[in-house]
Write a structure and sequence with these properties.
Elements: E1 8-18, E2 22-29, E3 34-40, H1 41-47, E4 54-58
Antiparallel strand pairs: 1-2, 1-4, 2-3
C-alpha cells in the first residue's frame, strides 16, 4: 500500500463493534496502545476486516486535536 500520509500505525484488529451504519474498529499497536476508528460498515466489508487481521491506522494530521488539563 502506497499513500501520501506519513502517520501510519501498523497493528492488529482486536475488536469490531458494529452499529446500524458504522463500526468502531480497534487496532492494537506493537507497543500495546489501542487506536479506535469509526468507519462505515461498507468499508469494514470492502477491506475484509476481521479480528486478528493486520491493519494500519492512517491519521490525517490536520484532523488531530491536542488538549491539556486546566
Amino acid at each position: 500500500m502506497r499513500i501520501s500520509a506519513r502517520n501510519q500505525l501498523k497493528g492488529t484488529v482486536i475488536a469490531i463493534q458494529e452499529g446500524a451504519v458504522n463500526a468502531i474498529v480497534q487496532i492494537k499497536l506493537s507497543g500495546g496502545d489501542i487506536v479506535s476508528a469509526t468507519i462505515s460498515l461498507a468499508a469494514v466489508k470492502e477491506l475484509g476486516l476481521a479480528v486478528g487481521k493486520k491493519a494500519s491506522a492512517i491519521i490525517k494530521a490536520t484532523s488531530v486535536m491536542v488538549g491539556v488539563e486546566d
